[in-house]
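Lab notebook: predicted structure, single chain.

Context: the supervisor wants predicted structures on file for every construct in the current expression panel, including those that have not yet been purified. This is the next one on the list. No modifications to the sequence; it matches the entry in the shared construct table.
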Amino acid sequence: MLLIKNAHIRPMAGEDIANGEILIDGGKIAGIGVKVDAPEDAEIIDAEGRLVTPGIVEAHCHLSLIHISEPTRHLRI
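Prediction complete. Output recorded below exactly as produced.
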């Protein structure tokens, strides 16, 4: 298990959590909040001063924008 702590968390739904924790089990979010119940042997990442956005898979994506710089003659309306 992995525990990310002391993070400014911006979840996909709900209010931001200052100095929060995220527990990850098997690559999936198992808990998120001000304090989560993590096992003592969990790997810990101290994210102090960092923004964590759980649930965002690819925040910077060019998918579907491949032809954005091409002339509009390629557009079919």
